Hints:
2 domains
Amino acid sequence: MKYHQRMFRTLRRLPSLVFLTTFILMLSWSSPASAQVAGKKFSISFKDKSVAQILDFISTKGDYKINYSDDVKNDTLLLTISFEDVDELSAVENLLSHSSFVYNIDGKVIDVFKMKNATQGQYIVHGTVKDKDGLGVPFAIVQIKGTSNG
Length: 150
């Protein structure tokens, strides 16, 4: 009889033990993940600086390595631009929207280069649109910049 009473008390506590264990596991798993997702944010202003100089600064503020072509290095465009509470990727995207350069992200490397003018013709493009974590973006639509083609 005592065995059954002990067993009954243990079973009564089981849901709360399962809940507590699950809560502790979720808490321990969420902390490191949120630290990795949140990028290092910064704020700064530049006056009359080249794209290459600004990219060099941005590369010191995060985990990405930024490579750029000689076209970027030799470009004479001087920009005056401010960044307020942005991460590295947002800063690069914002900066390059004011120039004729484009970028490609491969892992933790950002390659910046000048888009070459393609000859008129039909091209088939294959690929996967990925988010900043490298996961595929479902139902993504890709559009050619400056056109309605997509």
